[in-house]
C-alpha cells in the first residue's frame, strides 16, 4: 500500500518536472534558441506525425503536413501566449494544415471533359 503511494508521488513529480522542463524549452525557443526549438520538436515529432497520418491516411501527405506544421510552429512560436497549452496549439496548427491541404486538393479535382 505504501509502495503505491510512493509510486504515485514519483509519477506526479516526474510529470511536473517534465512540464517545467518543457515550459523552459518553450521560453528559450520564443527567445530564438534553435537548440531549444529542436528539442521541443524532438519531444513532439512522433505525436505530430501520427496525428498527420490519422488525418491524411497517407504517408507522403502526412510527412508534408508534418513538415509544414514544424515550419509554422517555428515561425509563430513567439505568438504562443500560454506555454502550458503548447500541445493544444501545435495540434491546432496541424489540423489547420490538414484542412488547407484538403481544400487545395478539392479545388483542383479532375473533371472529365467529353471530346467533340
UniProtKB/TrEMBL annotation:
Q: Which organism is it from?
A: Paraclostridium sordellii (Clostridium sordellii)
For this chain's UniProt record, which GO biological process terms are given?
DNA-templated transcription initiation
Instruction: Please give the Gene Ontology molecular function terms for this protein.
Output: sigma factor activity
One Pfam family for this entry, by name? Sigma70_r2
SUPFAM superfamilies named among the record's database cross-references: Sigma2 domain of RNA polymerase sigma factors
Keyword annotations from UniProtKB, A to Z: Sigma factor, Transcription, Transcription regulation
Quote the gene name from the UniProt entry: sigV_5
Q: What is the lineage of its organism?
A: Bacteria, Bacillati, Bacillota, Clostridia, Peptostreptococcales
Protein name as annotated:
RNA polymerase sigma factor
Q: Which domain of life is it from?
A: Bacteria
Q: Does the keyword Ligase apply?
A: no
Amino acid at each position: 500500500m505504501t509502495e503505491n503511494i510512493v509510486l504515485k508521488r514519483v509519477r506526479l513529480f516526474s510529470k511536473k518536472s517534465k512540464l517545467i522542463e518543457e515550459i523552459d524549452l518553450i521560453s528559450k525557443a520564443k527567445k530564438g534558441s534553435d537548440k531549444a526549438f529542436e528539442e521541443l520538436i524532438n519531444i513532439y515529432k512522433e505525436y505530430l506525425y501520427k496525428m498527420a497520418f490519422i488525418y491524411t491516411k497517407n504517408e507522403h501527405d502526412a510527412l508534408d503536413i508534418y513538415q509544414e506544421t514544424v515550419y509554422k510552429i517555428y515561425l509563430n512560436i513567439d505568438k504562443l501566449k500560454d506555454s502550458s497549452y503548447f500541445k493544444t496549439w501545435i495540434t491546432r496548427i496541424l489540423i489547420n494544415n490538414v484542412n488547407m491541404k484538403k481544400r487545395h486538393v478539392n479545388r483542383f479535382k479532375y473533371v472529365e471533359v467529353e471530346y467533340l
